Amino acid sequence: MDTLKEKFSEKALPMAVEVKNLIKEHGDKKLGEYTIAQVYQGMKSITGLVTETSKLDPEEGIRFRGYTIPELREKLPKSVNGGTEPLPEGIFYLMLVGELPTLEDVTNVANNWARRSIVPKHVFDTIDALPLSTHPMTMFSIGIMAMQTESVFAAAYKKGISKKEYWDYTYEDCMNLIARLPRVAAYIYRKKYKNDVHIEPDPKLDWAANIAHMMGYEDFNVQRLMRMYMTIHADHEGGNVSAHTTHLVGSALSDPYLSFAASMNGLAGPLHGLANQEVIAWIMHMREQLGGGLPTEQQIGDFIKKTLEDGKVVPGYGHAVLRKTDPRFSAQQDFYHRYIAIDGKKDDLCEIVQTIYKVAPPILLNTGKIKNPWPNVDAHSGALLMHFGITEFDFYTVLFGVSRALGVLASLVWDRALGHPIERPGSITTEGIKKKIAAMAVK
Ligand code: HAX
Q1: In this structure, CATH architecture of domain 275-387
Q2: Contact yes or no for 231/85 (Cβ under 8 A)
């Protein structure tokens, strides 16, 4: 058994017993009540899931196992080659076992993933069979599905295994999948945008730096960005579409490949992960309409108002849970000011992102209906990638997906270890709701 798996089993297996007892002793206690509006409007704020890896506070933002993003940028181990941003191997370790890793722990995870990183040829052949015009997220999801042939969980289940062993095979699948995703993502990138000329992984590089390398970017600042990007996008508690889908599909004992591919189809929606591509498309459209150059505050304000008048959403703004500026947005702003906007240098697109941040919130607030007028993670990420020459913005959600694997797959291993059952919430018809309202009026 590898050291991480051993450490996980030492934590998770006693906790599985504890959770069973907790349900037995306290299972009938109430956690809350909910309203008709919540049932119609996406179950917002109804606590209906247990997720161990992270917790989202509406005012403060995400905490991974209790640590905020600024704390993690400081405390997680960095690359020994002059790294200043956390290695994503570290946040995976933290989410999986609940402890801050040492540099040695992180190196062990990196070596573990490197050993598992070979992608079978038929996965590339499957992607190659798609028209080049296929959206990168569709290619990504199909690539993950093609890899399902490798599922050790599915193979073991077919042979017949005890429930007690589910987590073990799930762990193997999740580790293999995380190890292989960078290669699949980079393959899609090079196939679509770089004449189908591919770059082999560099065994000396860490997981995130290897993504940059295989995409064709060797600049140290791109490695730095990729490490931060992969860390901050990793998890956002359990109810968001990608995390919840992994959990839901996994609850049917679908293996991690099936569960994760399903979640990527959710991440590909414009109200979720695709918003990072939409933000850049929206800004480009605005600049095009204005004939190029740096738009003024007034022009940006007018464009936001026009977007709203046209019945469209302003991408990168709003959130189903957050009610303040997303700390993932602030981390990226900090990255811009720390590494790009130095010695009098400026980046036009990043500057526009800062101006939108000034102008958009009061306009959105003024609509009287948007609950969160502040930027989310997607408002900034594309501008940083564009700065470093990664201009193919319909690819951005794939990068988000590679990072999101860290959180949702760590959670899936926990789901299997804690023996979470199949998910099956109840539903009601509008007729049924009307009857309940009538009955309440009589009382
Ligand atoms: N622009 C215009 N209208 C918006 C808006 C925005 N940025 N955010 C919310 N609204 C609207 C909603 O569409 C809704 O309108 P209707 O009543 O006419 O249906 C109303 O305001 C109330 O919505 P809400 O309660 O504030 O927001 P929701 O929880 O329903 O939705 C969303 C949250 C993130 C989907 C929403 O804010 C949105 O569409 N934002 C733009 C897209 C985006 O940036 N998505 C990425 C979110 C973060 C993420 O998951 N990243 O992966």
Answers
A1: Orthogonal Bundle (1.10)
A2: yes
Instruction: Tell me if 306 CB under 6 Å of ligand 1.
Output: no
Q: Where in the chain is the domain with CATH 1.10.230.10?
A: 275-387
Q: Is 394 a catalytic residue?
A: no
d(CA 44, CA 159): 40
| 312 Cα to the center of ligand 1, angstroms | 10
Tell whether ligand 1 has an atom less than 6 A from the beta carbon of residue 16: no
Q: Is 11 in the pocket of ligand 1 (CB under 6 A)?
A: no
Catalytic option among 247, 272, 380, 387: 272
Instruction: Read off the pTM.
Output: 0.97
Give the chain's length: 443
Known catalytic residue: 213? Answer: no
Q: What's the gap in Å between 327 CA and the centre of ligand 1? A: 18
- Residue 54, helix vs strand vs coil: strand
CA 403 to centroid of ligand 1, rounded, Å: 23
**Ligand 1 centroid – CA 376 distance (Å):** 11
Say if ligand 1 is within 6 A of residue 275 CB: yes
Q: Which residues contact 1 (CB under 8 A, 6 or more apart)?
A: 9
For residue range 4-26, what is the model confidence (pLDDT) as tens digits?
999 999 999 999 999 999 999 99
CA-to-CA distance for 384 and 344, rounded, in angstroms?
A: 17
CB atoms within 10 A of CB 194: 14
384-422 per-position pLDDT tens digit = 999 999 999 999 999 999 999 999 999 999 999 999 999
Ramachandran region, residue 98 (left: φ > 0; alpha: ψ -120 to 50; beta: rest): left
* Binding site membership of 224 for ligand 1 (Cβ less than 6 Å): no
The alpha carbon torsion through 168, 171, 173, 179 (nearest 10 deg) reads -150
135 is catalytic: no
Spatial separation of the C-alpha atoms in residues 420 and 176, rounded to whole Å? 22
CATH superfamily ID and name for 54-270+393-417: Citrate Synthase, domain 1 (1.10.580.10)
